[in-house]
Structure formats: C-alpha cells, structure tokens
Amino acid sequence: MSEISAGNRTGAGADDGGGHGGGGEAEYDVAVIGYGPTGVTAANLLGAAGLRVVVLERDAEIYARARAISTDEEVMRIWQRIGLADRLKQDMLADRPLDFVDARGRAFLSAHPTPRGHGHPPQMFLYQPALEQVLRDGVARHPDVEVWLRHECLRLRQDADGVELTVVGTADDSVRRLRARYAIAADGGSSLTRAQLNVGYEGRTYEDRWVVVDTKMLKPWPDHDRLRFRCDPARPAVDCPTPLGHHRWEFPILPGDDERHLTTDEAIHAMVSRYGIGPDQIEILRATVYSHHVRFAARFRVGRVFLAGDAAHAMPPWIGQGMAAGVRDVANLCWKLDAVLRGELPESVLDSYEAERKPHVKEVTRRAVFVGRIITDRRLVVTRVRDAVLPLLNRVPGVAGRLQDSNWIPVAHYADGFRDRPRTKSSGITSGRRAAGAGTARTGTSRSRPAGTEPARTDTFRTDTSRTGTSRTRASRTTAPGHQIPQPWVTAPDGTRVRLDDVLGGRWLLLHGARPTPQPEWERAGVPSLTVLPAGSSPAEGAVVDCDGVLRAWLTHHRATTLALRPDAYVYAAAPTGTPLPPPPEGLTLTSRTNTAITPPVATLTPTSPASSSSPAAQGTP
Questions:
Q1: Class of residue 334 by CB neighbours under 10 A (exposed 0-12, middle 13-18, buried 19+)
Q2: What pLDDT, in 10s, does the model give residues 542-577?
Q3: What separation in angstroms does the CA of 216 have from each of 124, 219, 616?
Q4: How confident is the model at residue 517 (pLDDT cuts 50, 70, 90)?
Q5: How confident is the model over 376-380, as a mean pLDDT?
Q6: Which of 208, 379, 531, 611 has its CA at a distance of 20 to 30 angstroms from the CA of residue 418?
Q7: For the whole model, what pTM was predicted?
Q8: SS (H, E, C) 246-273
Q9: pLDDT score at 427
Q10: Angle 73-81/322-341 helices, nearest 10 degrees?
Q11: Following DSSP, what letter does each residue of 535-600 receive, concatenated?
C-alpha cells in the first residue's frame, strides 16, 4: 500500500491552505487517528456510509505482533455490516472448547461457547495480522476514504466548525494541516491525542508482566485445538490455538526471572516442554513482553474528538474482549456521526456514545479481572480449594450451566442511552431539542460547545414522551428498548434465505410482528416499515419470513409487537399490539440515500494466507 492511498483515487493530501474547497471549508467529514482494528473498522463503516474520511497511521505496515486472539458473534455481526464477515471467517477457528486445568493438567472446569443469536459462531480464534489485512483490503473499496500511512497527528485544534489537525510525515518530516468535522482517536493505550486533550487515563497497571509467544505449528499434538488456561500456581499459562497454523502461549514473568532470558528460544522451549511439546513441533516466531492494564479515559468525548478502543479503555486479556470493545465503540459511534453530518439527527445525540459504551466496557472489564483471578492465583491454599470446589459445582444443576456456557461477556443494554424513556421528575429534557451544539447538514453551519470543553452532563439525547398521553403508560410495559434484536436467518421478499441485518440495511426501520399499526409521526420522518411473518409463510413484499421463529419469540418475550430500530439494530422504542409507538426523537428527518444497505463484495477480496476450506467457520451453513 502506498503511503497515501484512497479507494479509486491517487490520494492527494491536504495542503497548507486547508482543503480543496478553500474558504475554510472542511476537507473531510471525519479524521480517524490510528489504523489498528478499531480505526480500520471505523474507516470501513464511515466509508460504507459515503462520508469523506482521512485515516492517519504512523507505521508503514500492519503491526506484525499478534495481540488479540479471539472475537465473538456480536463483533462478527458488526463486520457483517461492512460486508467482510464471511471473508474474515475463512481465516478463523470457530467453536473451540476451553478448559481450566490444574497443575497436573486435569480440567476442573470446561466451558462451551453458547450462541446468543447474532447469526455467527459465538467464539472465533483469529490471527490478528491476517484479520487486519482483510479489513484494510475492505477499506480500498471506498473511494472517499484516504489512508495516510507513515503520518502522525502532532496537534489538534478545535473551533466551532471542526478540527484542525497538524500532521507530520514520519518518512520525510513533511508537515501538513487538514480539517475534519469530527475526529476519532483510535491511537492506542499510549494515545497522543488523549494526552493533547488533557484527558486522564484512570486505573492501574498490574505488577506482573507476561511473555506472549507466537509460534508456527510444525507437528500437531493431541488437543492442540483446545484453549487451555493452565492454572498452575508454580507458573500459570495460556495455551491457545490460533488459525492459519499458529499457536499462542502466554507465561508470567515471576519474581527472580530474567525477563530477557525468558524471551529466548531456549527458555520458551523449556516452558512448553512441560506440556509435552518438543522443539520439532513448533517454530518460535516472536516473543514479546506485555503488561496488563485496567484503565478508563475520564471522558470519551471532548468537543468534536472521540476516544475509541485502547485510547478510551484497557482491560486484561482473559476473556478476549480488548479488541472487541474497540470495534463495539466505533460501531456505536459511526452511525451517529453519519446521521449528524447529514442533518438527520441533532448533534446532541453524540453525547450518548459515552453514556452507552462506558458502562458496558466497565462491566466487561470487571468480568475479565474476575476470570484472571481464577487463572493466575498462585496462593496454594486458594488454588487447592478452587481445584476441589469448582468440579463439585459443575455437578449442581443450574450452577453447572452458568459455569459451562462461557457467557462471561455481558449483553449490552443501553438503559441510559439514546432510546425512548418514560418521562420522570429528574429527567424531562428531550432528545431532539436543537439547543446550541445541534448539528445541521454536512455542508456545515453547525455550532458546537467551546473547543476542548467537556460535553454537558445532561440527558439531552433522551426522548420527550410527554406527547404520548396514556398510550405511553401502556407502551412502557415492553422491555425491548435499549436491547439489540437477534439476527436469525429469514426469507427475504425475493425468496432468498439471508441473515436479518442484510435486509435491515443499517437504517432506521419500523419492525412489525403483526399487522402494522399506523405510525404517522414515524412515517412523516421517512422511516420505512418491515413486517415479520411466521415460519412457513410465503415471501412477500415489505416483509421477511422468520424461518425458525426466533424473532417473533423475542418480540413475545419483550412484550412488543412494533419496534423502532436504530441503524445498529438496537431498539429505540417499542409498543404492544394496537398501541402507537412513542414519537421519534425530535429532529429525526431521514435523507435520501443511495446505500440503504451494504452489499458484501466478498468476491473482491482474496485470502491473505491459506485457510482450510473444511474449517467450520468457513462453511457456515444457513
């Protein structure tokens, strides 16, 4: 890839005059700082929306060291939205069991991934450099996304209309200035952007450091494809399969260890020999020392700049959610930026990014810390009790299921986010009131809070429900708002069998589980409707057939017949049979779009390395 590239253009950069249009017009809608998994997902999402995007990345190549080793079905659902899920799964291992084993290698707890209804395998192991290559290849589809490799953002300055970025080329020390309406800082745990914004990164760094070893598997050994947490108090370890012929080990650096020696081939072979792995079975590719962190940025938003991924939070790796959390961040943020830039929603909706993401990532981190304690505890008395008690609990009905299904990752539920809520004495501010700071069209007369100030801590992104009268009392019985709907296989109007999101198309939508109830306020806002027909029904225009009854059962469980869906498939508002929905957020006015759904151009991407066609992840039978 050239140092500055764009989908179908030569990729001219910004000049010192500040843009093609002159007169202070912003050249880009969004600047993305950092091109790891979080940044490259953001570039794909924004590019698919047709926005003008510039990506700044200081390195010339993909970081060769594999860090993340797994992901989950919800993240795959996000990558499905950008048309890359099926291609990515070709290079992944799906549905592998995992064991917690004691010092003698005996499993005291085994877990099995349990699907949550997102339409993909619940857990997949990955090789991060290969994953990032596919995501970067995906960005090349979008002509309005420019990628500036070997460029680093040295300074940001905000004003009422956007962000000015001073960028240095690390290859030639050239300095350029560019402007964007908004910026996403996905530049990692040591984020220079976060430091410039003077945002604290609160939390702790664990004293223990770990050696992470990536290897190429030369000769397979029994059960090489099982994830094992080796909970040996003498030296805990992670023993993890990764795809494309790789395998990962992680070992703590214990008191008295020579850190430099522990990264040598000699020391690594000595450590893995305890598990019966000989030097002829693996080739050591690299060994790197990492520290584990639990940290959260004090703010995820400062004016027009948003922190995402490791720049906003860091967690230990024990449940494989560090990378996933960053992907969830930008999936939450990018559709809101798109809506604000197009004038479809007021700028105040952007405050809901932190309100929705921060509580969830904190709970994920809490669970990662808990699992880490099980794995790494070196106190002999505690580990003996653990090894004896957990197998007994495994035999207790109810308890066993909770321990074994590996659903340690909390389901996101946006109780305080951008959704319909009952009006209360303490919260009556509306979501759509266009106060100072409400964005208008992307051509740019929007106003914002003073540059560098923290967004006001109000409920400005919530909805005024006072207009619904007594019907709101009845509608409040539903529990659907704030939840993401499942993604079953459905029969589309043309008779094809597809995943639900491929029909939803990443847009505002009214979903009806029965004969549609007229929703004049939503219809005036331009929101289309889709009806869910029961299994066995014939395909019909404006409807999908719920092939396995999953979606209709979900509606019944949440006591809802009609849903107002956000573009990310989270429920904004819901109502039972015969009841009108609460009104849409004030200011919601949908514009005409050419890309109401993303067509996955899988055929344009070729594998970056050989993947077995017999892989369960690759086959994916509907």
A1: buried
A2: 999 999 999 999 999 999 999 999 999 999 999 998
A3: 19, 9, 21
A4: confident
A5: 90
A6: 531
A7: 0.85
A8: EEEEEEECCCCCCHHHHCCHHHHHHHHH
A9: 38
A10: 30
A11: TTPPP-TTEEEETTSHHHHHHHHTT-SEEEE-TTSBEEEEE-TT-PPPPPPTT--PPP-S-SS---
CA 171 to chain centre: 32
- Between the two ends of the chain, the Cα-to-Cα distance in Å is 35
Neighbours of 244 (CB within 10 A): 20
| Type of residue found at 82 | I
Copy the structure tokens of residue 83. 């048309």
Q: What is the pLDDT, as a whole number, of residue 136?
A: 98
CA 204 to chain centre: 23
Q: For residue 248, is pLDDT > 80?
A: yes
Residues forming beta bridges with residue 511, ordered by sequence position: 530, 563
Rounded Cα distance between 293 and 207, Å, is 9
- Map tokens 């321990």 to a residue: 403
Spell out a b/e string for 310-319, using b for 16 or more CB atoms within 10 Å of the CB, else e: bbbbbbbbbb
* DSSP classification of residue 427: B
Query: Are the C-beta atoms of 305 and 198 separated by less than 8 Å?
Result: no
Provide the token pair at 3: 């140092």
Which of 303, 247, 620 lies closest to 447, judged by CA? 303
Residue 190: partners with Cβ closer than 8 Å, 6 or more residues away = none
Mean pLDDT of the residues in the chain: 84
111 has which bridge partners? 98
Q: Has residue 596 got a pLDDT over 50?
A: no
In the chain, the amino acid numbered 574 is: A
